[in-house]
Amino acid sequence: MGSVRRHALLNAPAQEVWEFIGRPGALHEWFPITATRIEGDKRWITLPTGIVFEEDILLVDHDLRRFQYAITNNPLITSHLGTYDVIELTPTTCIVVYSTNVEPEVFALAIGAAAGEGMRFLEKKYGIPKNEGTR
């Protein structure tokens, strides 16, 4: 199984960041995809190539500021769990941690690259604490 984790330290309160990225139907606003559609606990994302992935929304926890999902009904991906958390560091800073476990492991490379783009977008939107950045 391939695993990937990306994070970004942000100059913004955790709740403010969560209100932006914690909406399952708004992934396309900060992640490198072109569209998102929600029906109940299902989400479909459209990649820039036009490929559509179906996902099960497993958890939207507003207290923990955690979102979890799994790619489903995909003949190429046999197992997947994606998670992102928004964790308060101080009242005015937070860290966003995005992680994915996926099989076959080669897909971790593509998901990791996309997650890195998403983290860079958040850094541009909110700013980063001095001497910090995407990891």
Automatic annotation (TrEMBL):
CDD domains xrefs: PYR_PYL_RCAR_like (cd07821)
Gene3D superfamilies: 3.30.530.20
Pfam families assigned to the protein according to its UniProt record, in alphabetical order: Polyketide_cyc2
InterPro entries: Polyketide_cyclase/dehydratase, START-like_dom_sf
Protein name as it appears in the record: Unannotated protein
